Every structure is written in C-alpha cells, then in structure tokens.
Model the fold of this input.
Amino acid sequence: MSAGHAPTNRHHLDGNRSIGIVVLSVSDTHTEDDDVSGHLARELVTKAGHKVVHYDLVANSVADVRDRLEPYLAEIAVEAAVTVGGTGVSSRDLTVNALEAMGGKPLDGFGQLYRMLSFQEVGPLALLSRATLFLVRGKPVFALPGSERAVRTALEKLILPSVQHLVEELER
Done:
C-alpha cells in the first residue's frame, strides 16, 4: 500500500460485538442530574450497540477516581472505560494523574488524534487538553474532556469506531 492511501480492507473495524463500558464523570461542580456530558456519553455508547455497565460521578481527585474505577475494571463484564472531565490544565484537573497513579500504560495516538480533531473545531485551544488513552489492568480507559463537544467528537470519531478492535487485540 502506498503512503497516503487508506486500506481497502477495514473488516477489523466493522465488527458487531457489544462491549461493556463504564462511564465515569469526574467533576467538582456537576451532579448526576446536570451531568450533560456524562449522559451524552452513555447515550452514544448505547446507540452504538454497546452496554453501559456502570455510570458514576465522582469528585475530581486522584483518590476518588482510583477508588471508583479500580473495582469496575476488576469486573469481567467491564471491557473498557470512558472518563469525562478532569483532563484540562488547572490544578483541579486530576483524571490523567489518577490513571497514571493506577499504573496506566499510555497509548499516545489517541490523544494526538483527538487534539488534531479538536483543533479543527476550536483552534489552538485544543493544545490545552490532556485527553488520553491508558491501558489500566489490561483494559482501555479513555480520558475525555468534560465538554459535550469533546465527548461527541471523541466517541463518534475515535472511540466507538475502534473500541471493539482494541478490546479484541488486548484479549489476544
């Protein structure tokens, strides 16, 4: 295949297996009632044919994220997780720090692609995002910014088209 040409055989991205996903919103200001981005993430995951195994909202702290996420990742039904919020540059944005503290192995390509897509939507402010993908306990954990736009972009353009293949690769 020559450079610049997309592969013609994309069967590895076209499966129909339902993946069990945790949606964890991380916020010091929202409640479950007004967690618009968390609700959007659940809706998009479900519409794509996957199962939201757990939804939760925790405070933006390393301990709270770790303590809520670790038991979920230990469950067989949980095959991936999506966190919403806590990926910015302020001192209170601690989701990425929590995933690092859990021994997460970063997969840099996700964050790079997300920021590229985000740049097309919001310009240079995209560089303020620490959106990333970690493998934690052998499972993918996507850390997304808390805005609705960010959640929609990441899920529709990156996560949902690839999560089944990623999970299957990790099971090999």
About this structure: The CA atoms of residues 144 and 150 lie 7 Å apart. Residues 148-171 form the longest helix (24 residues). The helical segments are 36-47, 62-73, 95-101, 108-122, 148-171. The chain has five helices and six strands.
